[in-house]
Amino acid sequence: MKRSLYFISLLFLLGCSAQPRPHGKMTLTLTDDLGRTVSLSQAPSRVISFAPSLTEMVYALGGEGRLAGVTAWCNWPPQAKEKTVVGDMISPNFERMVSLKPDLALMIGSRPSPLLKKFEALNIPVLCFKDETVADIQRALKALGQVLESPSRADSLTREMDLQLAAIKAAVDQVPMEQRPKVFAELGSSPLFAAGDSSFIGQMIALAGGINVTGNLPTSYTAVNPELVVKNDPTIIIVLHPQANKEQIAQRLGWQNVSAVRNGRIYPGLDQDVILRPGPRFTEGIKILHGIFYAP
Amino acid sequence: MRRDIKAWYYLAPLSLLTILLGLASGPAGFGLLADPQVMAIRLPRVLLGLLAGAGLASSGAALQAALGNPLAEPYLLGVSGGAAFGAALALLLGLSAGLGGAVGLPLFSLAFGLLALYVVYSLSKVGSRLPAETVILSGIIVNAFFSALIMLLLALAGRQLQEMIYLLMGNLGMIFGAQSLYLLWVCAAIIILCTGYLWSQGRNLDLLSLGEQPAQSLGLKVEKLKLRILLASALMVAAVVSLAGVIGFVGLVVPHLARMISGPKNSRLLPLSVVLGANLLVLADALARTIAPQEIPVGVITSLLGVPFFIYLLRRKKRAGL
Q1: How would you label A153-178 residue by residue, b for 16+ Cβ within 10 Å and e otherwise?
Q2: CA-CA distance, A153 to A135, in Å (whole number)?
Q3: Which residue from A71, B106, B123, B301 has the fewest beta carbons nearer than 10 Å?
Q4: Residues of B in contact with A243 (CB under 8 A)
């Protein structure tokens, strides 16, 4: 009897702890991507996100109820636009942030920003994630899954990503390197902006089975000379900015003989947020790119 | 032989060499017989370099004479601030999308440049006179105002931040759209006409540098001349900024370089400034295109090339006992 009571009460306790309680006690110690050790004594209930990609992850994990503040760039899912805006990493509105009484801030970057140090000084825990590769996205999702008490959802999301990546990889692997389309990704037109292989879009192009013609640029995003495009002769141009349309690109000085221009394979009007944002929707972006690269 | 005439013997072949070098260098490979498509990109760029260098240097030289101040430069008039703000605003409003950025942006830039000049002019007018010091002061104030506005736009820029920064740093790589060619011709017409006008006023500028009162008593219409010089300089600067952003150093230092060679006579100084400015900018841009596949702001290179040369000339002058 005693023992059964003990079991029942134990079950009851377990049942309680399985409910996500906003202020539930927990001791969670995480190491973030900057190598900082962050301890949370209770589940965070007022989170500020400093990146649209992180905001998307919080929503994907069902943690939107704990999201207190977002940046002006957080536009997905649409209801994220109704959250309190606290500026962004470049021009943060510090007072508004503090007035939200956050118990966790989420940031991106590979170096500690001045903002991060400000939060540390106020003893507000900060988790900082890298956002440069697919592995970074999956690692951030898993860490956020632990923090937002939905680890199983994080696992199923990352598994789904792996499956979709594997499917596209299988299709791409059948195409020999020399038959893959040579892609120029245009990120701005005055001056012309391009992306190197170390950039996120560079990796997206490779995963979708294209070859980035400006891949050997030393930095991830930079202004380039339009001669480079003539020299490297891409077969496809994807336009990831709203400043130039197909006709204008086709009429550029000296671009008339570029293969992509000759064959009319210039693709403006792509959803930049899906393709350039290192968030949970990146597999959609790869599918869109793969569809363009291997269009019949 | 006169020193400036001797200098021309060196400058003529040097200019030819500079233009050839400008046409031969770029990330697509060194050479003049490259793909004609590549030449279609390089030729307008070299032209813009020549025009911008000439325009900035000649307006700098004329302003230094007209305002009687060795530190006067094209960017002092507030025009550059206005023009840069106009360009940045066009970028932020997405106007660069309208006509490929090739028309909307420069037009905005030109309009705000001229607006800035008008404000400077109305601020500095005392009765019917334009005292040099009030012109300089109003120019500084108007520039400060537009600088503040530019900072505001930078804070609001978000995605366009990088493009704006390139625009403000000065870059000859913005013209590769088909429409930008028309603008290049407009810009060329403005710069050639205004430079020609400034050169024609060389003797009057010499008179003016005697001081305003003496020049007036010798029968020179001082106020009218100053206003025209300001207008010609402002037009040129607005044209240059609208196509190439804010390129520093050329307008301030090239006239001093030229003066070291030619002496203070404006009719000799102006053509020399034009050729030196054009050469310096084309050479700097050729270098910028050879160093790296990325676009490097040409203003950085002009300063890096120009300063040591300037120091060398200054030291030589000092040894010669000025």
Answers
A1: bbeebbeebeeebeebeeebeeeeee
A2: 17
A3: B123
A4: 94, 96-97, 100-101
For the segment A17-64, what is each residue's pLDDT rounded down to a tens digit?
444 445 556 678 999 999 999 999 888 999 999 999 999 999 999 999
Quick one: pLDDT band at residue B7, thresholds 50, 70, 90? confident
| pLDDT attached to residue A4 | 52
Which residues are registered as beta bridge partners of A107? A128
- The answer for residues whose C-beta is within 8 angstroms of residue B34's C-beta and 6 or more apart is B28
Q: Does A217 touch chain B (CB under 8 A)?
A: yes
- The residue type found at B5 is I
pLDDT of residue B294: 84
- By Cβ distance, the residue of A228, A251, A256 closest to B293 is A228
Q: Do B294 and A217 touch (CB under 8 A)?
A: yes
On chain A, the residues whose CB falls within 8 A of the CB of B166 are 191, 223
Closest CA to B279 of B75, B11, B41: B11
For A191, the closest of B29, B159, B174 (CB atoms) is B174
φ, ψ (nearest 5 deg) of residue B106: -65, -35
Identify the H or E element spanning A85. strand A84-85
Q: Is the peptide bond before A191 cis (omega within 30 degrees of 0)?
A: yes
Minimum-distance CB partner of A73 among B41, B91, B158: B158
pLDDT tens column, A152-180: 999 999 999 999 999 999 999 999 999 99
Helices (H), A19-110: 52-60, 94-99
Indicate if the pLDDT at residue B258 is higher than 70. yes
Q: What are phi and psi of A105, to 5 degrees?
A: -120, 140
Q: Which of B234, B228, B254 is nearest to B307 (CA)?
A: B254
B275, B104 Cβ separation under 8 angstroms: no
User: CA-CA distance, A190 to A271, in Å (whole number)?
Assistant: 20
Top pLDDT among B13 and A23 is at B13
Residue A1 pLDDT greater than 50, yes or no: no
Residues counted in chain A: 296
Residues from chain B contacting residue A193 (CB–CB below 8 Å): 162-163
Distance from CA of A192 to the nearest CA of B (A): 8
Provide the token pair at A23. Answer: 């202020």
Return the structure tokens found at A215: 């891949």
